[in-house]
Structure formats: structure tokens, C-alpha cells
């Protein structure tokens, strides 16, 4: 999704992809794995700046890039925080950002203690490699994470799991900002997100009836971006608690699903802004193009065939909806695309976006 | 500029380009010349539909494609009208479309007669191969087209030149429509265009104070698209005469410079719509995203370097402007990019777009 704004701005984008035929293939210029330092370094020789569409590039690869004089945005020190959920909690706590009550648990006994101290329920997370709800589990008994403890024991690293209080939230919000290496930063509208099974399902921009949370979320995201020296787009996923406080749930240091609405709903999309930011170009205006934008993910995709097969019916029914298809085969729960539409009323706009996405459900 | 919407919709776009390193290279999949039937046919074996970003593909190549069973949009019969300005005038006249008074002149004597009948001035055009003012000349004496007559004589084809009355117009307008093979068609807003030296320089959408011309232009463009069986985008360039009539100046059967404002100013851009139309997919809404959109071409480009070199200053000064750069080297008069911005007032928006484009002038 960075290709369209790169074409628009006339920026030559090159993609290192793990294999031919991935959804990034339209601009793929090299095939190689992001854990293969030689492949990444060879690819980097030809470019002005390196950025990422996920946070899993190993630190030693990142550091070799920096050592070779390649500008890397976000940098290794920032990405380290997004790569490990325990490090993230430590750094956010040190920055004074509001987070759920948390602790590191290394065995069943420590988890039992955490559960007892937090009303008998906790969210347990593997520190690394999780996404879209993977590596996240709500537990209500001390033996419910035995399988993960066993894996840690086998590794013998002494690492633990992250345990967090189960937050009683009113709704989930997300605040994206973009920051240049020079320090300039801009924010998009605070948005409301709805997760289903740990996966982002719907986003409404701006979040309705958010009152003073709008300014709070913006200040919080800016302070995190600056505190962690994030360059490029930073998405801050937030809980709005029942008593009206914000708590930081997760961070993503890249254009994020909760910001896809900006492609069709903003003067400058998160993908164009990310390109500008990592190239240290002046950032674009983040004004909304309509009173309300709604994004609904297409999860799973049509039972047979691809979204393209359903286009004749879906596009005819919804001429005012923007359809995005990632050219991925249908698979239950997989994000294969999204739809966005804009309108004057949040409820009406959401209903229209849902109806459009419904065409692609299995 | 068809690549971004193709990425968005998940449509696999392939490009036959004349050489490596052209501005279409981001998606270039084959190198070959559009006059080389073998190259075009080989390229076509792998695609579902063929379309064009100019009208100069020879009829025999087009007909071989159709003969090989390849869907071609717009089709050879429609493109034939866009390829020859005399054929265009004949067909428009037959359709009852309002056009400037015109005639075919084969020598100096015929041009003298035409000048005498039209107040001593005429616009003379070579029927084929012209664009951006090339092959168009205002003449006020019968010997002013001798060089072109000499070329025609040498070819010995008996062809003539197109002579048209020099229209005393109030302003120039353009009306774009898109039409599917099945016949469905949609129109964008009527726009006002300003030409400099025969090249489109500025577009304001919608045309201000156009009154009943809005409906007239729309009906006219639809009737031309249907009458000529155009598929894809059709741009109709119009004169608004001093006495308030519309006259058809030129036709373009492709996304056209006068429609570039739609990329940032409409729910569905002309490039996305062209893809939908040639694939016979339902057409998207053409609603404007703001009261006014203005596009200003970047002609020539920076005296040294490329638009990218000027981005730091230009983007900083105009965070709300969308910059488009075609990755072409600067050259006097050459279209190397365009800027678009939206606003509430035509004058203010035009001033802002002009100021942004000014950063790139030599």
C-alpha cells in the first residue's frame, strides 16, 4: 500500500520480499528473507533509506544496516520496543505513559500470584512474534499458560511471559502519528476500533463523543513517538476504560490497520506520510476529507475464488465505497482486503461499509 | 497513473513500454513498441484486456489484437476517430455534435478559399500524430501551411489538412465521461481549463458559473461516447463561445490531463474508472470530495535536477497540496508533473495551487 503514494510522488520504491508472488510483488525488486543479513545488506546497497512493513527484522540485521551507513527508519532502538512486549511495557512505564497493570511471569506460581493480585483474570502474552491476536490469551487459572512456559523452559533463556490486568474497557481507540528524523510530527484523528477475535474489524474516524480524550490521546502519542525516537508512522492502540481513562494497549511502528481509513479519508494517507517521514521530507496535512470515514476489514474472503469474482456485484451495489484487495487467497480469519467509505453520519456510514464488506464474507 | 488504483483494487496491471526506464517502468513487464504487432500480440497473450495511454496504436495492430480474441478497449472503430482529426470532425458532424466550421484543405488554393470564407483566419491541423499543441497552427495567410502540404504531396496519399474556423471563445471547458462495454456511463464535473501554448496548464473543477452548460456538456459527452461506442474514459475538450454555445474542440479516448484533478478530488478518479470500465466492472461514484479542486501542471520542471530536489521546500510550504511527479527529466514545456489542491473558493484554491507549482518552474 506504499506503492500508490510512491508512484504519485515519483519516488522509486523497491521491495525485498520473501518470495515471488507475495502481495507486494507489483514492486518486488529482490527476493530474500528479512532475517538473512546478506540478502538485506545487498538489497540496501541500492536505496536511500530502508523501512519496513512489519517489526520482525532481527536487531542484528538492523544494526548491520546502520553499521553499513544505511539510513534505517524506524531505527533499531525504536523497533526494539515494538519487537518485545515486555520491553514495550518497561519503556512505556518509564515514560510515564498510562498502561494496564503488568508484570513478568516466569512460571505457574508467578502467574498464580499475578492472578490473585488482579481479580483472578489476566491477559498473558508471549513477548515476541505475536500479531492479530496470536500470542495473546485471556487466562483465569494458573495452569492456562503451561504450554508457553514449557517452550520458554526449553529455550532456557530465563525469559518470562507478559501478564497484564484484564482491562474493563468501554471501547478501543487508536491514535496514529507520523514523525520525521528531524523531530517534526503530525497526528491523524483519534479513531474508534472494533476488534473481533483479536483482529481489527472496523474503524470509525474520528472516534465519536471522545471529548477531552482527543487531546489526551494526541499528546500521549506524540510523547511516545518522541520518547522512543520513533521515525515514520506510529500507531498507538488504546483502551478507553469504563471510568474514562486512556491506557496504552499496543504500539505499531509502521502504517497500521487502524489507519487504513486515511487512504480514502485524509488529505495525506498514512502510507504517503510514512514515505515522507522516512525520507525526512516535510509531512502532509492530515485533515479529514469528510465528517466520518469508516473502514471495515474483509476477513477470510469469499468461500470460493477471490474478491475480484465478487466485484461485479459489490461494486454495482456500492458505487461510493472504495474497495481494497490484497491479492491474497481466501482463508478463514485472514485479512484479504478492506473497504472504506465516507459520510456525514457515523451510524449510516458504518452500516454502508459493513454492507459492502459483507459481499466478500464466506 | 493507472498503477495506484490497480494496486488498490488488487488488479494485476502489466505494461508494454517502449523502453526500460520510462515513467511507466514501475509496472513494466515487457519492452516493445506499440507499432510492432508481434510484440503487442505476444504481450497480449497474458492479459484479460488491453487498453492504452495514448491513441497512436496503428489500426492494423488493433485489428490483429481483436482478431486474436483479445478484448480491446477502447476498440479500433472508436480509436480510429481519435486517431485522425478529419475523421473526428466527420463523425462528430454526422452525430450532430456542435463543432467549429471546418473543411479539408489539400493545397494552398483550398486554404485560401477557407480563409476567405472564415474572416481571414483559420486553425490548421495535421490529421494525425499531434498532441499538446503539436501539429496545430493558427494561419492567416494561404502560404502558412506550405511545409505541411509539401509533406502530404511527398506521401502522395491525396490526404489533406484539417482547417477550422478560429473560434472566438470565452473560455475552454472539458467534460469527461466513462463508459462500459455494456453501455453504462458516468460523468465527472464539467471543468474549466486554461491552455498555454497549446498545452493544458490549469484545470478548475467544477467550472464556475457554467449554468445550463453543465447539463449540455454532460449530454453531449454521453451522446458522443455512445455514438462512437467509446469504452473507457472519454475526455471532450470544449470551447464556450462568446455567445454562450459549446463547440467540441478535441476528443481523447483515455484518462486525460483535464481529468487529473479527479485523483485527489473525486470519490473515483479517472484512472480507477478507466480500469473499471475496460474490465466491464460497475463504475464508481464521481462525486467531488470538496467544493473546488484545482490542478496546475508542472511544465518544464526545475532548471537543474528533478522535482524531488525541490520537495523539501515545496512540501514544507504546502502541506495541503498533493504533488505528482512523473519521473521525467526537466525539459522546457514538458509535462513533468502536476499539483492538485482542494478548497472552498475557486480563486483562493487556484492561487494556492499556482504557488505550489511555482516551486518547480525553471
Automatic annotation (TrEMBL), chains A, B:
It is an enzyme of class 6 (ligase). GO terms for biological process: 'de novo' IMP biosynthetic process. Coiled coil: none annotated. It holds the Pfam family PurK_C. ATP binds at residues 85, 125, 164-167, 172, 249-250. GO terms for cellular component: cytosol. GO terms for molecular function: 5-(carboxyamino)imidazole ribonucleotide synthase activity; ATP binding; metal ion binding; phosphoribosylaminoimidazole carboxylase activity. Catalyzes the ATP-dependent conversion of 5-aminoimidazole ribonucleotide (AIR) and HCO(3)- to N5-carboxyaminoimidazole ribonucleotide (N5-CAIR). Belongs to the PurK/PurT family. This is N5-carboxyaminoimidazole ribonucleotide synthase. The lineage of its organism: Bacteria, Bacillati, Actinomycetota, Actinomycetes, Micrococcales. The gene is purK.
Amino acid at each position: 500500500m506504499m506503492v500508490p503514494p510512491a508512484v504519485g510522488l515519483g519516488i522509486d520504491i523497491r521491495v525485498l520480499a520473501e518470495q515471488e508472488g507475495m502481495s507486494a510483488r507489483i514492486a518486488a525488486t529482490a527476493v530474500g528473507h528479512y532475517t538473512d543479513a546478506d540478502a538485506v545488506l545487498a538489497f540496501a546497497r541500492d536505496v536511500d533509506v530502508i523501512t519496513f512493513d512489519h517489526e520482525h527484522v532481527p536487531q542484528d540485521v538492523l544494526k548491520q544496516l546502520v553499521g553499513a551507513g544505511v539510513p534505517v527508519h524506524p531505527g533499531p532502538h525504536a523497533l526494539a520496543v515494538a519487537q518485545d512486549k515486555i520491553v514495550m511495557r518497561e519503556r512505556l512505564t518509564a515514560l510515564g505513559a498510562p498502561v494496564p497493570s503488568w508484570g513478568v511471569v516466569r512460571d505457574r506460581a508467578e502467574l498464580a500470584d499475578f492472578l490473585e493480585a488482579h481479580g483472578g483474570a489476566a491477559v498473558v502474552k508471549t513477548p515476541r512474534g505475536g500479531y492479530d491476536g496470536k500470542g495473546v490469551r485471556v487466562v483465569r487459572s494458573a495452569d492456562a499458560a503451561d504450554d508457553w512456559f514449557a517452550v520458554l523452559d526449553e529455550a532456557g533463556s530465563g525469559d518470562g511471559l507478559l501478564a497484564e490486568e484484564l482491562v474493563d474497557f468501554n471501547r478501543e481507540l487508536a491514535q496514529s502519528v507520523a514523525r520525521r528524523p528531524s523531530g517534526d510530527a503530525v497526528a491523524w484523528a483519534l479513531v474508534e476500533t472494533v476488534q473481533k477475535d483479536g483482529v481489527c474489524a472496523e474503524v470509525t474516524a474520528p472516534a465519536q463523543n471522545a471529548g477531552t480524550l482527543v487531546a489526551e490521546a494526541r499528546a500521549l502519542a506524540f510523547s511516545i513517538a518522541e520518547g522512543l525516537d520513533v521515525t515514520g508512522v506510529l500507531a498507538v492502540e488504546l483502551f478507553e476504560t469504563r471510568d474514562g481513562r486512556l491506557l496504552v494497549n499496543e504500539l505499531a511502528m509502521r502504517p497500521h490497520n487502524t489507519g487504513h481509513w486515511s487512504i480514502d479519508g485524509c488529505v495525506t494517507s498514512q502510507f504517503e506520510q510514512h514515505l515522507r517521514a522516512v525520507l525526512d521530507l516535510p509531512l502532509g496535512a492530515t485533515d479529514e476529507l469528510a465528517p466520518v470515514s469508516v473502514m471495515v476489514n474483509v476477513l477470510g474472503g469469499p468461500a470460493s475464488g477471490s474478491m475480484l469474482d465478487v466485484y461485479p456485484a459489490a461494486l454495482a451495489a456500492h458505487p461510493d465505497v472504495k474497495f481494497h484487495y490484497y491479492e491474497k487467497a481466501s482463508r478463514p480469519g485472514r485479512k484479504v482486503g478492506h473497504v472504506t467509505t465516507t459520510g456525514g453520519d457515523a451510524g449510516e456510514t458504518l452500516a454502508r461499509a459493513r454492507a459492502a464488506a459483507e459481499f466478500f464474507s464466506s
